[in-house]
Specification:
The chain is an alpha+beta fold. About 45% of the residues lie in helices and about 15% in strands. Strands 1, 4, 5, 6, 7, 8, 9, 10, 11, 12, 13 and 14 form a 12-stranded mixed beta sheet that branches. A two-stranded antiparallel sheet has the order 2-3.
Length: about 450
């Protein structure tokens, strides 16, 4: 009997070894790798240089340093650079910066900033409700279901999209920065977000456990309300409690007081702006991995349960740029997002495909196109900013673009400059007023959206 067992173990071990060898790295392969590397004498120099200076310094292309030019043929005048600091609220800073520039132009104000902290409070409260209600809606599904797994993996985030700006501002209005200033937690959200996520995961689990024991819808909603009261308390402790009314003085272009009034956040928004953020704007995407001229909607890519999912028309870059140029020519800045970390010279604030030569440094070829990078998760929208200028040549074709950032005075005095070639490769989303888009885009936007799952590669913030 013992011999049979030992024989069986030997057979299984040999089969396991054969299966492992089939797809595993073998000694023969390692010998080949080693020989190929050591036979190239340049590799030793590259290794020494990389360890001494690092990737970015060695890959930097000095030739581009002197080709920088900060002239723009068309530019939207903005006043004051904002700073999101160590938070993922670029989407909110960008959205409020776009609205701020409109309000200042409309009322000829000398200065104005909206409180990001105020809108962030309600963004987090609404996202908490979105998660908890999502848990209730899927409580009959097993924990292993992909939608349930996705919910618990992503209970809350500080990132977002323009849909969040539209939903939160429309529902809760805006207030000036001086009415609800930034807090330490708002400026550095990571630690607090982890605790809030833990709170929500536990609450979601308790809802599922209650449903499994037979709790009805009314009981689950009552539980959710109590859970949201705890979330509200945590947010108020970390961010401060949002004002329900405040007094604000309007001033003329010289800073002289014109009028002092009491406002609610909604009345303040309606008086200063009054835009219909949900219907006045078109959301465009450039995603070559999917069919153009189709409307797509990403499930759960929203900020509030009663809000709108990110719904966009996928268009070629040519059509997206045409709308952007029309908007800038009419002195209207736009919300847009991109993969900002690619080929960014942070010191000069320049986005240029020629900034770094990674291929020469590593003696390799990076050959994927934009669509392939998107479909393999190699590139995606990572940061939202304000598109505020374009430099056109004599044929009215764009050469470069001016971008208002929310990283304080870093880069080009708070701005980034992107070459047109860079925008082709790494621009993703643009939100533009309907009056600047073509009839073809308006017609295409009327299509029934193709729904994509919440785990789609384009479910990313910004």
């Amino acid at each position: 009997m013992i011999r049979k067992i030992l024989f069986a173990i030997t057979i299984v071990s040999s089969l396991h070894g054969a299966a492992q060898e089939k797809g595993a790295i073998t000694q023969e392969m390692l010998n080949g790798f080693k020989a190929g590397y050591e036979n190239n004498t340049a590799n030793r120099a590259r290794h020494n240089a990389l360890n001494a200076a690092g990737i970015e310094k060695l890959a930097y292309n000095e030739k581009v340093r002197n080709k920088f030019d900060d002239h723009f043929s068309h530019k939207v005048e903005t006043k004051g650079i904002t700073d999101q600091k160590s938070s993922g609220r670029c989407w909110l800073f960008t959205g409020l910066n776009v609205l701020r520039s409109q309000a200042m132009a409309k009322h000829n104000l000398p200065k104005l900033t909206f409180s990001q902290n105020y809108n962030f409070f309600f963004d987090q409260l609404e996202k908490a409700n979105l998660f908890l209600q999502g848990v209730i809606d899927t409580s009959d599904l097993p924990m292993e279901d992909r939608q349930v797994e996705w919910l618990f993996q992503n209970p809350i985030a500080d990132g977002g999209t323009f849909c969040g700006v539209a939903d939160i501002v429309t529902k809760y209005g805006v207030v000036p920065t001086e009415v609800m200033a930034e807090t330490e937690v708002a400026n550095s959200t990571s630690a607090f977000r982890k605790h809030l996520a833990t709170r929500l995961r536990e609450d979601g689990l308790r809802l599922r456990q209650a449903k499994a024991k037979g709790a009805d819808e009314k009981t689950l909603q009552e539980m959710k309300t109590q859970q949201l009261a705890e979330v509200y308390k945590m947010l108020a402790l970390a961010l401060g409690e949002p004002p329900t009314e405040f007094t604000w003085t309007k001033r003329d272009s010289k800073g002289n007081a014109i009028e002092t009034k009491k406002y609610t956040p909604l009345s303040f928004y309606k008086e200063l702006l009054g835009n219909d953020l949900k219907n006045d704007y078109v959301m465009l995407m450039n995603d070559p991995s999917r069919e153009y001229w189709k409307v797509y909607r990403i499930d759960y890519d929203r900020h509030s349960y009663d809000g709108q999912d990110w719904t966009y028309l996928n268009v070629p870059m040519k059509d997206l740029k045409e709308a952007a140029i029309k908007s800038i020519k009419d002195s209207t800045a736009m919300y847009f997002s991109c993969d900002v970390g690619k080929f960014l010279d942070r010191e000069r604030g320049v986005l240029d495909l020629e900034n770094f030569d990674y291929e020469a440094l590593f003696d390799t070829k990076f050959g994927m196109d934009k669509g392939e990078r998107i479909s393999t998760w190699a590139s995606a929208s990572s940061h939202a900013m304000t598109l505020s200028g374009v430099d056109l040549d004599e044929k009215e074709q764009p050469k470069k673009w001016l971008i208002e950032n929310s990283w304080g005075k870093t880069g080009h005095d708070g701005y980034l400059v992107a070459t047109d070639d860079w925008m082709d490769e790494y621009l993703f989303r643009l939100v533009v007023d309907k009056k600047y888009v073509s009839p073809k885009i308006l017609k295409a936007m009327k299509q029934e959206p193709i729904t994509l799952p919440s785990w789609d590669h384009l479910f990313l913030n910004n």
